[in-house]
Write a structure and sequence with these properties.
four-stranded mixed beta sheet; disordered C terminus; BED-type domain-containing protein; DNA binding; zinc-finger; 272 residues; disordered N terminus; ZnF_BED_domain_contain; 3 domains; Znf_BED
């Protein structure tokens, strides 16, 4: 039997898509809300948003407690409005020229593939451990400038797709290590707990399962034992439960009790 912690919570690591609220008046103040109407279901609960620029008959957009999906829609369909509110700022200095002066070369040769892939892996590990946005390598100009400056253009930071691929590989390794430990933990009478998280920002989402336990010497351990791409999946209790079962099946765990909840309103699904 695998014991899950009593509060198996769906959590969002909110970054650029944070919902800003005016505490005094209870109004959302993020600029994107000026361009959307709330869409409510038959019970009066908000289940989506309708773009004012697309018109009242347009299809409602999914909304999950942050503005990531709304901002993605504005970026794709209403580029001018998006640029007016979140357009890139011109750098204060010419970093490439400064790097060339500092290193005494125009641009270094590209790194060999194995070195590039090794750095990709370390970047993905940093992003996962520190819970940074998966798109940070594309959106953080200063971070790119640091790498360009130090490596003189010989390395390009990974796209969010490459970051996600590397995180999936890292989670596979973590799951393998955890599976190898299971017999030892069982022999020691240690019963691990797990928590599930949806890591979501700017329309990019991963569902992750984290196993954690304390050994007989009082030392705390944790392993990321499974991740599943979740960008195209509705963030409901049923989908979370389905993803959890898949990860646990890969770990050869078939008996468990799980209570899935979200922080808003959606579901309270219990399965045994």
């Amino acid at each position: 039997m695998l014991k899950l912690n009593s509060s198996f919570c769906l959590r969002y690591f909110r970054f650029a898509g944070v919902v800003l609220v005016d505490a005094k008046h209870g109004k959302r103040i993020a600029w994107v809300w000026d361009h959307f109407w709330e869409h409510k279901d038959d019970d009066g609960n908000m289940d989506g948003c309708i773009c004012k620029l697309c018109g009242p008959t347009s299809e409602p957009l999914a909304w999950c407690n942050n503005t990531s999906n709304l901002r993605s829609h504005m970026s794709c369909c209403h580029k001018t409005v998006f640029a007016e509110n979140e357009g890139p700022q011109d750098p204060a200095i010419n970093v490439a020229a400064e790097a060339a002066t500092w290193l005494g070369a125009a641009k270094a040769p590209e790194l060999p593939g194995h070195k590039r892939d090794a750095i990709h892996r370390r970047v993905a590990l940093w992003i996962a451990r520190r819970k940074r946005p998966q798109s940070i390598c594309e959106t953080d100009t200063e971070l790119r400038d640091i790498f360009d400056f130090v490596l003189n253009g010989s390395y390009t930071l990974p796209t969010h797709k490459l970051v996600q691929q590397n995180i999936l590989k890292l989670s596979t390794e973590g799951r393998a290590k955890f599976k190898a430990l299971q017999a030892e933990l069982k022999a020691d009478g240690v019963l691990p707990s797990i928590s599930g998280y949806i890591w979501s920002e700017n329309g990019i989402a991963l569902f992750g399962i984290l196993a954690y336990w304390i050994d007989g010497d009082g030392r705390y351990f944790e392993r990321l034992v499974g991740t599943i791409p979740f960008s195209e999946v509705r963030h409901t209790g049923a989908e979370i439960l389905l993803a959890t079962k898949k990860v646990l099946a890969d770990m050869l765990i078939g008996e468990y009790v799980v209570d899935t909840k979200d922080e808003g309103k959606i579901v309270n699904t219990v399965s045994r």
